[in-house]
């Protein structure tokens, strides 16, 4: 499946200090909870914040996602030097599963003991001694893998093909050593939310891991209801923000913005023969950025009242990926009174056209520069709403205005 993935490599200049060579970092293992700075349930942008704070440790990071169907497969953030990766649910963009796939490269600390890394082989005996007895594991003969389960933690051991009969049935004891005198060494460690009492391992068992439930009142992925041409309504906080609201209204309802910036107007047309470069002029209008809510609000520079809202879906493969948390919007308007006809971040462009009708040609928008690695996006406008559509037919942003 990997050739379908779009792989972004966040490569930084090599700044390896002594001691961060492969396998030399030590991360705390927290069964059912996380490893090192990464906790199950964390949104993907929080994980990137942790990565950026320790660039000399996480200096090679691969981000993999399925470009054509971004909601089908996990977004995977992988650390090849350290032998582990993080799997984020593609819809909620929260961490659901941590897998250590090369135990020799990652030294883990549990309680006061070290396991894994080049010197502490994670053998069946060592794991049993550290984590205590457990129920017999599950044997997957087809994969030749035996998996041992603890709450929120599992260990997979490869079984040499000649010894798969050592595991007679699905639930079996693994021998401490195989007949040839070798001892089983774990090939994969999985850390997942153990509260649902699921067994999560390799293969089909991997899909059982889901991010822990959010605590009541948590605003992450709060539903934002859009009434076209009228207002936004925040379902958990209960705020109503209409077009024409003042900056003070917005401060009161949403708190202070994460950023404020002037809107720039590209005047591609106005350039003199002596200076062929397009000029950027500032038009007085300005944005409030609420990155943690996935939205921007545009104010009129003269009246200081809301002119537009921009909602972000935060799909990987767009230039803004990871700048905003995904906005979980539900768009309903005068034409969308039928409840089945709402538009959300999971709606594809074809479905929008079915709901709103065809709107004619797109205005092409390249993100800042023509050599943008993510390719250009297309903007389609309707009354009160415009969609910025990516090549895979999902939209990156939705702009709301009053026409």
TrEMBL record:
Q: Which Pfam families match?
A: PHAF1
Q: Which InterPro entries match?
A: PHAF1, PHAF1/BROMI
Q: Report which superkingdom the organism of origin falls in.
A: Eukaryota
| Family as reported in the entry's similarity comment | Belongs to the PHAF1 family.
Specify the protein name. Answer: UPF0183 protein At3g51130 isoform X1
Q: Which organism is it from?
A: Populus euphratica (Euphrates poplar)
Lineage at the top is:
Eukaryota, Viridiplantae, Streptophyta, Embryophyta, Tracheophyta
């Amino acid at each position: 499946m990997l050739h379908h993935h779009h792989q972004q490599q966040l490569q930084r200049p090599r700044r390896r200090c002594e001691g961060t060579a492969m396998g030399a970092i030590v991360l705390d293992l927290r069964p059912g909870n996380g490893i090192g700075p990464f906790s199950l349930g964390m949104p993907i942008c929080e994980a990137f914040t942790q990565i950026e704070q320790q660039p000399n440790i996480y200096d090679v990071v691969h981000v993999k996602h399925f470009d054509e169907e971004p909601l089908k497969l996990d977004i995977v953030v992988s650390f090849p030097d350290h032998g582990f990766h993080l799997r984020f649910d593609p819809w909620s963009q929260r961490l659901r599963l941590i897998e250590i796939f090369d135990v020799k490269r990652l030294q883990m600390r549990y309680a006061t003991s070290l396991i894994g890394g080049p010197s502490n082989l994670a053998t069946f005996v060592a794991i049993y001694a550290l984590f205590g007895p457990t129920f017999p594991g599950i044997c997957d003969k087809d994969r030749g893998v035996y998996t041992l389960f603890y709450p929120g933690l599992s260990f997979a051991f490869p079984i040499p093909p000649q010894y798969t009969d050592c595991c007679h049935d699905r639930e079996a004891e693994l021998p401490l050593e195989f007949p040839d005198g070798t001892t089983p060494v774990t090939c994969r460690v999985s850390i997942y939310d153990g509260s649902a009492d699921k067994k999560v391992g390799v293969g089909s068992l991997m899909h059982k891991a889901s991010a822990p439930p959010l605590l009541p009142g948590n605003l992450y992925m709060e539903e934002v209801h859009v009434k076209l041409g009228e207002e936004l309504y925040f379902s958990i906080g209960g705020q109503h923000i209409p077009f024409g609201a003042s900056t003070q209204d917005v401060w009161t309802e949403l708190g202070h913005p994460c950023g404020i910036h002037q809107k720039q107007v590209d005047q591609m047309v106005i350039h003199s023969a002596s200076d062929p470069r397009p000029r950027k002029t500032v038009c007085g209008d300005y944005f409030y950025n609420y990155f943690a809510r996935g939205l921007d609000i545009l104010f009129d520079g003269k009246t200081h009242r809301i002119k537009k809202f921009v909602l972000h879906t935060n799909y990987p493969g767009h230039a803004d990926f990871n700048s905003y948390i995904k906005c979980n919007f539900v768009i309903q308007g005068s034409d969308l009174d039928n409840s089945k006809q709402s538009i959300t971040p999971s709606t594809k462009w074809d479905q929008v056209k079915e709901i709103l009708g065809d709107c004619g040609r797109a205005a092409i928008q390249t993100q800042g520069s023509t050599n943008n690695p993510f390719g250009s996006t297309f903007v389609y406008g309707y009354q009160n709403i415009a969609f910025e559509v990516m090549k895979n037919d999902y939209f990156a942003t939705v702009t709301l205005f009053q026409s």
